């Protein structure tokens, strides 16, 4: 199996379609300013562009990568920061698929035994993700900047390693979005996030069935992780080339805790329920205080289970109570049982994909 970095990570406004070119490489500043008008360009849910465009070049609005400046001085909307974070991570997801569309063709997948529809489905998901970009741009008020694209590196080198990363990101994105709902202050935002999560679930179901010959079902519930900005920080760190973001972009994610990030030792565990696990650190080691108890808190489905954590061996046990071979497990190191607050988490989260089981080690050191 190929080693690839990971992550995470997504509604509609009634407005008319204005005819514009949709697949050019870049626009000038006047086009960037036009994007601040939600009536500009093809409308997600109304235009078929976001379902059946199949060109190699980026489609609207991803053909305009610059930040969109604020056009008013009034107070920002209550959920502007949420959508700025979401737009930032959506650039990562869109560009993952865009790079795949540019790099591969139908035979890249059929030569490996995948269905002859695989490349077309990847292109269709790319189109969907461009629609998400426009939805999130339109969800940020005119009083706030709309982040532009950075440059990204994903680590896949062929069709097989792309599919490994693709299913991991899609499974993880649902966990991120369900947690993000808790941050929303506007009821319409909550509904819109659930609608986008449903779209991502369809992407996941396709990948599990066609690419992995696995069940598309994650059990009675997908996993909820209550602190989505921690997932965002993992995602930005994993895929964004340092120094490549536009200087006008707001900090992302905002706010950020800058937590130590986790891997695990694949030589000591299979990463499945009931197995011991030794954590490793991708960045800095947490500052464990003598005399303080620390815990490994594992999230799966709608529940979490707390297990003692040995700070000397960096070890714990993945709860055997969790259903096997379903969805994804997230683990965090916390200074309180259950990680009851964002501040109680001192490292993580670690993603342990359970479905397909063969990809659990994708987040191993």
Tell me about this structure:
With 365 residues, the chain is of the alpha+beta class. Helices cover 33% and strands 11% of the residues. The chain contains eight helices and seven strands, in the order H-H-H-H-H-H-H-H-E-E-E-E-E-E-E. The strands form two sheets. The chain has a four-stranded antiparallel sheet with strand order 4-3-6-7. It has a three-stranded antiparallel sheet with strand order 1-2-5, with no helix packed on it. A hairpin with a 2-residue loop joins strand 3 and strand 4 (303-308). The two termini are 14 Å apart. Residues 1-30 have low confidence and may be disordered.
Strand order of the largest sheet: 4-3-6-7
Total DSSP E strands: 7
Radius of gyration: 20 Å
Separation, N- and C-terminal Cα atoms: 14 Å
Poorly predicted ranges? 1-30
Strand content: 5-15%
Sheet with the most strands, sense and barrel status? 4 strands, antiparallel
Elements, N to C (H/E): HHHHHHHHEEEEEEE
Broad shape: globular
What is the overall number of helices?
8
Percent helix: 25-40%
Helix-strand category: alpha+beta
Average predicted local confidence, pLDDT:
91
């Amino acid at each position: 199996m190929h080693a690839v970095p990971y992550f995470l990570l997504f509604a509609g406004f009634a407005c008319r379609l204005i005819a514009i070119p949709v697949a050019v490489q870049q626009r000038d500043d006047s086009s960037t300013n036009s994007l601040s008008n939600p009536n500009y360009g093809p409308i997600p849910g109304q235009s078929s562009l976001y379902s059946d465009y199949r060109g190699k070049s980026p489609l609207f609005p991803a053909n305009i990568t610059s930040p969109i400046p604020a056009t008013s001085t009034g107070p920002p909307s209550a959920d502007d920061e949420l959508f700025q974070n979401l737009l930032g991570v959506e650039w990562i997801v869109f560009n993952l698929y865009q790079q795949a569309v540019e790099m591969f063709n139908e035979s890249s997948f059929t030569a490996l035994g995948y269905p002859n529809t695989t490349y077309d489905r990847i292109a269709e998901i790319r189109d969907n993700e461009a629609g998400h970009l426009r939805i999130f741009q339109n969800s940020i008020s005119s009083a706030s900047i709309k982040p532009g694209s950075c440059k990204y590196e994903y680590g896949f080198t062929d069709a097989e390693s792309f599919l490994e990363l693709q299913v991991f990101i899609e499974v993880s994105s649902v966990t991120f979005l369900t947690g993000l709902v808790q941050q929303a202050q506007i009821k319409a935002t909550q509904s819109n996030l659930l609608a986008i999560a449903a779209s991502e679930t369809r992407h996941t179901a396709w990948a599990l069935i066609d690419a992995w010959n696995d069940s598309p079902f994650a059990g009675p519930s997908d996993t909820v992780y209550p602190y989505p900005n921690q997932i965002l920080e993992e995602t930005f760190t994993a895929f964004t080339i340092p120094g490549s973001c536009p200087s006008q972009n707001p900090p992302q994610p905002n706010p950020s805790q800058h937590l130590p990030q986790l891997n695990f030792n694949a030589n000591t565990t299979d990463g499945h329920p009931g197995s011991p696990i030794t954590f490793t650190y991708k960045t800095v080691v947490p500052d464990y205080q003598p005399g303080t108890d620390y815990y490994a808190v594992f999230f799966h489905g709608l529940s979490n289970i707390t297990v003692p954590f040995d700070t000397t061996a960096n070890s714990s046990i993945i709860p055997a109570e969790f259903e096997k071979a379903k969805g994804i497990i997230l683990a965090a190191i916390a200074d309180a049982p259950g990680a009851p607050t964002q501040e109680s988490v001192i490292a993580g989260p670690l993603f342990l994909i359970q479905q397909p089981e063969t990809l659990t080690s994708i987040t191993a050191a």
